[in-house]
Write a structure and sequence with these properties.
With 281 residues, this protein is α+β, with helices and mostly antiparallel strands. The chain has helices at residues 30-44, 54-62, 109-123, 138-147, 235-254; strands spanning 23-26, 66-72, 75-87, 90-100, 128-133, 151-156, 175-181, 200-201, 219-224, 257-265, 270-277. The chain folds into 2 domains: 23-181, Gcn5-related N-acetyltransferase (GNAT) (Aminopeptidase, 3-Layer(aba) Sandwich); 200-277, no CATH class.
């Protein structure tokens, strides 16, 4: 059940907030957990049906779950939340939600929250953590694949169903499931912008592209929208990208490829996943 929204404006970060003054720490009080609920609604919208209530956030924090917040003075401007459980006999962590207020994006808070989460899990002796992200979101892919160094382990079709959030674009919530070794410090991955001879899987080929034709090259590119949240793509076009990329990734994983990087061509405003066949990279 979605908690009722209050008839008050969402809190905003202090005007002098910057990355140097923001403090990341665990949420501790019921008021802070309630602020996290309000932040979820602010980030995902009033129609979001998967809001985690304050009671569950508080309970989870008592059984080795983890709720970390980014605070500008006393104002919560970002958070990351996850649950600890057992998978195949091993204690692991599932990072369920990461959200940052729109007016404070661009400060690197998402990365700082994830790195703080990784460090705390490593301190607790939890070696592996998992989470998901939308393969069509280029900025999230850059953070997760290039900056945090996650390993993509699966492609889940419509994992969360319909959530009512405008951020989910009204299409199936396909997600990458990713894994991170908490004992290893994040290592940034950078790739050259020259896509030269690599074949491209894309529903929107451009002049000069080497379009993949069904062969199995050692490396290839899978194109995604440059900025799917920009509002520049009509609904039917976004759906076309979802269906096409779902097919490409399912084919790639079935044939032994792995995601190794996200490549962005700022001049052409294009984004591509680099995929390499295991053993060939």
């Amino acid at each position: 059940m979605v908690p009722p929204t209050r008839d008050l404006p969402a809190p905003h970060a202090p005007s002098n907030a910057d990355s140097e003054t923001v403090v990341i720490r665990r949420l501790e009080t019921l008021d802070e957990f309630q602020s996290c609920v309000e932040l979820q609604i602010d980030v995902w919208g009033a129609g979001f049906t998967d809001v985690v209530p304050a009671s569950i956030l508080q309970v989870a924090s008592h059984i080795d779950g983890l709720v970390l917040g980014a605070f500008a003075d006393a104002t919560l401007i970002g958070f990351v939340f996850g649950l600890t459980g057992v998978k195949d006999g091993e204690i692991v962590h599932w990072s369920h939600m990461l959200g940052v207020r729109a007016q404070t994006r661009g400060m690197g808070l998402g990365r700082r929250l994830k790195e703080a989460q990784r460090a705390e899990l490593a301190r607790r002796g939890i070696v592996r953590e998992f989470w998901t992200f939308d393969p069509l979101q280029a900025r999230n892919a850059h953070l997760n694949v290039n900056r945090l160094g996650v390993r993509v382990i699966d492609y889940a079709v419509n994992m969360y169903g319909t959530t009512g959030s405008p951020l989910h674009l009204g299409i199936a919530t396909d997600r990458f499931i990713v894994e991170l070794d908490t004992t290893k410090a994040p290592r940034a991955t950078f790739v050259a912008a020259d896509r030269g001879k690599l074949p491209i899987f894309t529903p929107a080929p451009r002049v000069g592209d080497v379009v993949a034709d069904g062969d199995s090259p050692s490396s290839a590119l899978i194109e995604i929208p440059w900025d799917v949240q920009s509002g520049a793509h009509p609904a039917d076009e976004i759906l076309r990208w979802r269906i096409a990329t779902r097919t490409y990734f399912q084919w790639a994983f079935l044939h032994g490829y792995r995601v190794s990087a996200l490549q962005r061509d700022h001049e052409a405003e294009r984004a591509f996943y680099v995929i390499d066949r295991d053993g060939d990279a």
